[in-house]
Automatic annotation (TrEMBL):
BP-aspect Gene Ontology terms: mitochondrial respiratory chain complex II assembly; succinate metabolic process
Function: Plays an essential role in the assembly of succinate dehydrogenase (SDH), an enzyme complex (also referred to as respiratory complex II) that is a component of both the tricarboxylic acid (TCA) cycle and the mitochondrial electron transport chain, and which couples the oxidation of succinate to fumarate with the reduction of ubiquinone (coenzyme Q) to ubiquinol. Promotes maturation of the iron-sulfur protein subunit of the SDH catalytic dimer, protecting it from the deleterious effects of oxidants. May act together with SDHAF1.
Species of origin: Mitosporidium daphniae
UniProt xrefs under Pfam families: Complex1_LYR_2
Signal peptide: none
Main location: mitochondrion
CDD domains: Complex1_LYR_SDHAF3_LYRM10
Family of the protein in this entry: Belongs to the complex I LYR family. SDHAF3 subfamily.
InterPro entries in alphabetical order: SDHAF3/Sdh7
Name the UniProt record assigns to this protein: Succinate dehydrogenase assembly factor 3
Keyword match Cell membrane: no
UniProt entry keywords in alphabetical sequence: Chaperone, Mitochondrion, Transit peptide
Length: 108
């Protein structure tokens, strides 16, 4: 995937976030921007492939939610035990940080 395609994916995700409730949009935009910024200089093709695959999966999930296949109360995805066990220490830390952010009181 070339730079223009990655930028297109990034922009399409931010556009999708516009359809989410404000607190989800703000959190989603922040997280998306940070992740894409953090991976801007990655050169390992395997890591880039995984990164793009996961964001495409996320985009499909949000699109399905937007079409009413899921309610907002159920927005998200439960990780299996094998998925959790396969996470690196850094990924577990990121997941914990995300959990903390989503459990803070929302202030605009």
């Amino acid at each position: 995937m070339n730079r223009a395609e990655v930028l297109g994916l990034y922009k399409s995700i931010l556009r999708l976030h516009r359809s989410l409730p404000m607190e989800f949009k703000i959190l989603g935009d922040r997280y998306c921007r940070q992740e894409f910024r953090n991976h801007k200089s990655v050169t390992d093709p395997g890591l880039l492939t995984d990164f793009i695959h996961e964001w495409k999966t996320y985009k499909e999930h949000v699109e399905a939610s937007k079409k009413g296949k899921e309610t907002l109360e159920r927005l998200g995805k439960t990780l299996t035990h094998s998925q959790i066990n396969s996470l690196s220490t850094e990924q577990v830390g990121q997941l914990h940080t995300l959990w903390e952010e989503t459990n803070k009181p929302f202030l605009i």
